Every structure is written in C-alpha cells, then in structure tokens.
Amino acid sequence: PRYSRRYREAAAGGRPGYSGTMPVSLLGASEIRRLAADLDITPTKKLGQNFVVDANTVRKIVQAAKVVASDRVVEIGPGLGSLTLAILETGASVLAVEIDHRLAARLPDTAAAHGVPADRLSVIDADALQVRELPGSPEVLVANLPYNVSVPVLLHFLETFPFLQRGVVMVQAEVGERLAAPPGSKVYGAPSVKAAWYGPWRLAGTVSRQVFWPVPNVDSVLVGFERDAEPRGDEELRRRTFTIVDAAFQQRRKMLRQALSSVLGGSAAAASEALEAAGVDPTLRGEQLSIDDFVRIARG
Ligand code: SAM
Fold first, then answer.
1. Phi-psi group of 15: left, alpha or beta (phi > 0 → left; psi -120 to 50 → alpha; rest → beta)
2. How much distance in Å is there from the Cα of 245 to the middle of ligand 1?
3. What is residue 261's predicted lDDT score, i.e. its pLDDT?
C-alpha cells in the first residue's frame, strides 16, 4: 500500500512537535450497511445494536472524552467500528470488548482497511459484564453502550478496574440524566448515588436519534465522569454503602428510619439511632441524601 508522509512519520514515532494523529479514515453510512450485510448482521434489540452512521457524532464523542494520542482507551461494544475508528483517529490505542462474535472477529480487518496499525487495536470477544481483566490497563472509557445493560456495565467496570480514570459514554437520555442527577432532583436514584461513589458525573451533550441505524425509539445523551483521586473507602465500605443505598431507594417514599430498618439494626428505633449518629435526620428520604451522607451512615 501507498502510505502518506504523515502516516510514515507517525508510524516511525513522529517528528518533534508532531501531534501523533494517524491518517485513519472513518466509516460511512453505506459502508456500515455493506459491512453488516456482509456479516449477515441484522441489528438486534437484545444486544442493544444501534450503530452510529454519522462521522460528526463519533468525533463529537471522542472530543467530549478529550482523547489524546497517548491515551489507552477501552471501548465497550465497538460493533462495526464507527466509534472505534474515531478514537483511533486521534492516535490513541483501543482495547475493544464485543459480545457478538461476528463483530469482534471483523473489527481488526475493518481497522486495518482504514489505516490503523495493527498494534493500536486489541479486541476481546466477551460479555463486558463478565470481563475481569483488561490488558494494558486503559485509563479512559469511551463507548456507545448497549442500552439494556448500560448501568450494570458501567458499575462493573468502575468497580473492577481501578486504573480507569475518566470516560464519556453514550446512553439512553433517562439513564444519563439519572447518572448525573444531584440529590433532591426527581430522577436521583440508586444509580446516581452508586455512580457518585467513584467520582463526579456530568451531562456532556445530546445525540439525535437520526444518527443511528436502526433509529432507536429513545433519545440519547453523553455522560462523562472523572474518578476521584482518592477512593472513598475500601471494598467492604463500598458494599455496605451500596446495600444501604439499595434499601433506601427500594422504598423511596418512606422515611429513612423505616426504609433502612432492615439494614440498620432491625428496627425503626435502631435505624433512627444509627442515622442520628451519622448526623442524618431519620425523617428524610433517600433521595435527599448525597453519597457523602450514605458513606457516613455506612461507616457507622
Ligand atoms: N460502538 C458501535 C457504534 O457506536 O456504532 C456500536 C454500539 S451499539 C449501541 C452496542 C454494541 O454493544 C453492539 O455492538 C453490541 O453487540 C455490543 N454489546 C451488547 N451487549 C454487550 C455486552 N454485554 N458486552 C459487550 N458488548 C456488548
């Protein structure tokens, strides 16, 4: 193949001052459909398969994630590779986790055909919920998440991979708003508190339905997170905090002294005492507490 000068310089490690950007080309809408037909893929709801067919959108996600050439990125659900190529376009390396064997097997060929050097992309053919190791310890998560498992996958990755420092993911609008919700807001719930255990979350943009194939019947948003420099506590404290959070939101209309009686001493009186000791009014409801409040209760 004929490589451009930019490619040769970048492949050789770049010249001083060179940004490291590789001449990677992105997938177009017609190529995506051709690839899918070639693989005999009919997108399934079960696997949340809505593929992005718009180059501006994948670039917008990568920009929101502030991916730079030195980043090691993990992508969950690369699909046919639209977002993967946009990440690789920055010069970053990608570790992609894909559950659909046909998609996982094809991705390296697609990347090579679009100018990506082989050592920039690794693919794990697996269910992201089951993955327990990520070679190379990537520090950035970028994904257009499968909607049916977006929150469990996010929490699994944050819990299992402490080297993940930051990320931007595309999720269903309701889920993104919930993840980024502050205490007291209508959509604040257990996922908001659990996500906040790891660090702050923010809404990072909206995405039109029209950029997907097939067009989904929900709106999408981008959400970003940054892991706190210091963890809030050890694994035992995290588990205890999450148990209390689950109990508080299972009965979200009840006062905490009632909702938490089963996990704080077995009675409303014992729960009230524990809550007061943590400086939390027992007549409040879970939706009014911050992650700090929940952690104080869990510390006991
Ligand atoms: N990143 C691609 C894009 O933006 O066009 C595809 C995104 S699509 C919303 C979600 C992808 O996640 C699909 O490729 C699907 O096969 C994959 N997927 C679904 N469940 C998964 C799981 N549990 N683990 C890993 N990948 C999964």
1. beta
2. 29
3. 97
Mutate to test the pocket of ligand 1, among 59, 144, 147 (most ligand atoms within 8 A of CB): 144
Q: For residue range 144-183, what is the model confidence (pLDDT) as tens digits?
A: 999 999 999 999 999 999 999 999 999 999 999 999 999 9
Nearest CA, atom 11, ligand 1? 77
Residue 24: how many CB atoms within 10 A of its CB?
20
Q: What is the pLDDT of residues 54-66, one digit of tens each?
A: 999 999 999 999 9
Q: What is the pLDDT of residues 1-41, one digit of tens each?
A: 344 444 444 444 444 433 445 589 999 999 999 999 999 99
- The secondary element (H helix, E strand) that includes residue 144 is strand 140-144
* Count of CB atoms situated within 10 Å of the CB of 93: 21
Q: Tell whether omega for the bond before 214 is within 30 degrees of 0, i.e. cis.
A: yes
Q: Looking at the predicted structure, is the pLDDT value of residue 222 above 80?
A: yes
Report pLDDT digits (tens) over 106-118.
Answer: 999 999 999 999 9
Residue 294 has a CB neighbour count (10 Å cut-off) of 25
Q: Could you tell me if residue 13 is left (phi over 0), alpha (psi between -120 and 50 degrees) or otherwise beta? A: left
Q: Which of 33, 45, 49, 107 to mutate to test the pocket of ligand 1 (most atoms within 8 A of CB)?
A: 49
Kindly list the protein residues whose Cβ atom lies closer than 6 A to any atom of ligand 1: 47-52, 76-79, 82-83, 97-100, 103, 127-129, 144, 146, 149
In contact, 220 and 234? CB cutoff 8 Å? no
CB atoms within 10 A of CB 173: 15
User: What is the spatial distance between Cα 40 and Cα 118, in angstroms, rounded to a whole number?
Assistant: 25
